[in-house]
Amino acid sequence: MYSEENKIYIALVGGLIVLLVLIIFFVISIVKYHRRKVAFNLEKLEADFDHLDHERERIAADLHDDLGSFLSAISLHLQRVEPRNEKSKDILKFCEEQLDQSVNKLRRIAFNMMPGVLHRKGLDDALTELINLMTDSTAIRVNYQYNADGISHVKAIHIYHIAQELLHNIVKHSKATLVTFNITAIKNHVVVQIIDNGIGFDKNLFLKKSTGLGMRNIKTRAEVLKAKISLATLTGKGTYFQIKMPFK
User: Fold this and answer.
1) What residues contact residue 64 under an 8 Å CB cut-off, 6+ apart?
2) What CA–CA distance (Å, rounded) separates 29 from 23?
3) Using one digit for the tens of pLDDT, what is the confidence trace for 131-157?
4) Per-residue buried b or exposed e for 59-89, using 16+ beta carbons within 10 Å of the residue's own CB
5) Could you tell me which of 143, 145, 152 has the C-alpha nearest to residue 118?
6) What domains appear along the chain, each with residue ranges and CATH number?
7) Do 138 and 163 touch, CB atoms closer than 8 A?
8) How far from 74 is each of 66, 109, 129, CA to CA, in Å?
9) Which residues pair with 178 in a beta bridge?
């Protein structure tokens, strides 16, 4: 028979074991709940971006194909009008120039929203066209290399918009003259690197104050891609940006 002291000891040990089991069960339940919540949020993000990108594609097509064609038709009709005098000739010339500028701006807006070349020819050609468009009339030279065939169309859309935002920031803020832009498939990952020789910035201050829509979009798209972002920069030393995502 157990002594009274041993009974108390056994009861305490048993109680501790039961408490430990309950704690472990509680912790596992919390972990599972958070994992389900993270998975649900990620699925919601993917669905939101899928809807957003489909809307971008639809609006871009409407702008380019419908409104663009309509404005081009007006321009052609104006070219057939015979001016009566110098004043009417100047008015017609002005209208034609404004229409041409409007068509060009419209096509640029449509391209920025969702380039048709991304669907027709893929990410490589779309990025090449984007680089030419964004650096035209600037002093920036871009060394671009692409070696990542097999990226799914959904991932290509996210990578395109991330690159679009980064190149926009470089053109607008960096004062760079040289950009190195590489997309490479390495084993089971795709690595996107964009490096510029611009003026750089204070990284800590940037992360503290960065509340812009562009940076939020980059982070959110990277989250959807399950990608890791690396950023290195110093004032006067340029900027290094890398995003590494699962490939298969």
Assistant:
1) 106, 107, 110, 116
2) 10
3) 988 888 888 999 999 998 888 888 898
4) ebbebbeeebeebeeebeeeeeeeeeeeeee
5) 152
6) 4-112 (no CATH), 122-246 (3.30.565.10)
7) no
8) 13, 20, 28
9) 141
